[in-house]
Amino acid sequence: MKVRAYDSTLNAYFKSEVYAKINTGWYEKQLLLVPSDGGSYIKLFDFIDKSNENHPALINTIIPDIPSEWVNIKSGSVNKLLKYFTGLLDSDMLFFSFFGYSWIYENKSIMVELLKGKSIPYKNSIFENKIASSDICGWNYIETQEDAESLMEQVSGFHDSVLKELNYISGAYVDSNKSMYPKADLRKVAMCFESQWCQPIEMIFEGVTTLNLRPSGDNYDSIIFGASLYVKDASVFFCDDYLEKIDRSYEGTWITAYSLRWRFITDEI
To answer: Which residues in 215-247 are b (16+ Cβ under 10 Å) and which e?
Structure first.
C-alpha cells in the first residue's frame, strides 16, 4: 500500500509505503517511512486533520492494495487496549486495533515508542532489512523534476505525437448481488501516446486528483506539438501543450496525480 502524506513538522509532502494502520475512523494513524537527508525515520501520522473543521485527509492513497502478510487484530472496543499491550501504555491512550505486519506488532518496545508519538530511525532498526515496495519492475517512476525532464527528453517533448487511448478506473463498483462499493480508492488513468519521434509510450497516473479531457473538435486535428510535465509537493501535473509552469486554468487536456510511471511499448509487452 502506497500513499502520499503531509508532514506538518517539515511542512512538506512525501511518499511512503504503509507499514501498518493503527486504530480506525477518527482515531486512525498510519505508520510511514519519512525520507530525510539527515536520516530517514518511521513514525505514526494522523489520517485526518483534526485541526481543520472540514477534516481533510492528511494521507492520500496512491496504491490501495493491502499486503497479504498483514494481520488484523482488534480489542473489540474503542476504549479497550489490545490485550498484548495492557500495562505498557497509559490508560488514556487508544490502541484498539492493529492492521499491518505482525513483526511490528510483536515488537512491543518499538510499538510503545511509536504510540507515544516518537520516531524510530530507519537505519539499524527492525525496518531496515524489511523494505516494502509497491513499485512494479519494468516501469520508470517520476519522483523528481529531473525524472520528468529525462522523460521529456526521451520523447522529444511529445512533439508530433497523439493521444491514442485513455482509460480511467475509479475503484468503485457494484457486485453481482447489487451491493455497492462506492469508495473510489484506485483513481487510475492509463494513457497511450504514439509519436513520429519515439516508440509508443504508456503512462499510468495513480492517485488521480483531476482529469481534464479536451478532445479536438471536428474541424481540428489532434496532433500534440509539445507537452509539459511538472513535479511539485509529491504530485505530478501533465498537459498536452508547453507551459512555463503549472496552470490549472489551461483549456486543453491536463491531469494531476500523486504518482506517474511510464514505459515504452514494445512487441514483447
So the answer is: eeeeeeeeebebbbbbbeebbbbbbbbebeebe
